[in-house]
Amino acid sequence: MARAECDAQDVLKRVDEPLSGLQQRCGGDIPGVIAIPELLELVRKARSYGFRLARAIAAQDGVEAVTAWVEVEPQENGQCEILVRHWQAIPLVAEDASAADLRRTAIDRHLAELTARLDSAQRVLAVDCESAELSAAAQSMAAGLGRPWTEFLPPESVTHKQPLHWRLLDGTRVVVAGSERPWRVSLVPQLQPGFEPGGFELLLVSDVPASETVGTVPVAEHFARRSLVGQDLAPVLRQPIARIIANAETIRTRLAGPLPDAYAEYAGEIAGAGKLLLGLLEDLADLEAVEADSFSTAPDRIDLSEVARQAAGILNVRAQEKGICVEAPHPAEELPTIAEFRRVLQILLNLIGNAIRYSPECSQIWIRLASEGGRARVTVADQGPGLAAEDQSRVFEKFERLGRNGDGGSGLGLYISQRLARAMGGDLSVESAPGQGARFTLELPLDRPAG
Q1: Torsions phi, psi of 375, nearest 5?
Q2: What confidence score (pLDDT) does residue 407 get?
Q3: Beta-carbon neighbour count of residue 298 at 10 Å?
Q4: Is the peptide bond before 336 cis (omega within 30 degrees of 0)?
Q5: Where does residue 150 rank: exposed (0-12), middle (13-18), buried (19+ CB within 10 A)?
Q6: How confident is the model at residue 409 (pLDDT cuts 50, 70, 90)?
Q7: Are 185 and 202 in contact (CB under 8 A)?
Q8: 312: nearest Cα among 265, 356, 262
Q9: Which helix (H) or strand (E) holds 371?
Q10: Is the pLDDT of residue 318 over 80?
Q11: pLDDT computed for residue 224 by the predictor
Q12: How far apart are alpha carbons 118 and 141 in whole angstroms?
């Protein structure tokens, strides 16, 4: 069907259609280095082995998926003759817009250097930030809880009265005092079908990497001065690892252009390994924090029911991927509690995340509230494999994974969660039996009305 020739530097010198069109649609030139990944790999192998190779190659040009049978014959001086024996092109199915939006949100979560929880009116409820560059902005937001986020991160070139509708602010560029990097805000709504968003997750993202310093100290010098564990290591490595994950996800989902399935799978493996490493860093940082003699929480008056609903909403997409229904407390339910909002949310995300991870597909998870004797309780119950009696105390031990392998866990989540619960004057316990699921109960001090 087509012939082509390339030199020892993999530059196509002569090429017939339809191969020439695919070369150009994949970003290459004629003459130019072979831009079709699987063809380039085949040419280099044939040259290295010194004999003819023939195989099917696959490529995508953004419009069609192409499969071709190609033979490569190495010549003198490293040149290769390329023969295309068969060619099949199938139109690509248009990607679902909602699926693309979910992937972009996942990438922004990995890149975000500051996150905040907002209520339905876009008022700040909580802030999480470990970037020294954004510490001033984070402190201002933490000191101004209950005020619109736009007071702390003013949108560029927007003069209308704030806050605008969230769809108009999603993706907008914002001004961050003390930072020279460009920043944008991603607003992730917590939606329920048929209702307006009950709240938002705010992600502050810059497409320009942070400078390779920790404050005014170069990274290498920072490593030489400080121990490489927990809170020392995590802030330094979190951003570069998150950027690796985001770039790999961009490649895997083909947001940056067409790519053969095999290469997309490689990128998926890179992203998966990066997520495991990032999760381990986060766990090590939390482990060091909760075991420090100076560790304490910042108790406040919170609604345990609302925190449970927010945690369920954050993990709802992950649950839906397995067909799992998470039954959160009804919006009319309230349970006033004395605890630190951020730490309670962290515990519930861990409990619900574990329930999703170990529950069978198309099962159900229940989140129930109760109060008794000055204690507020929230229980996360699942239909998973359950725990034997001898395992129910071991599950809260450090690095304990009960023989599970390959599930991506570090064995620290429940240990840290129980330490956090006890630091807030409460506790975390489990009731279970093999084959009957598990019920993890977080107990905290009840906020009694004055009088």
Answers
A1: -120, 135
A2: 52
A3: 11
A4: no
A5: middle
A6: low
A7: yes
A8: 356
A9: strand 364-372
A10: yes
A11: 41
A12: 11
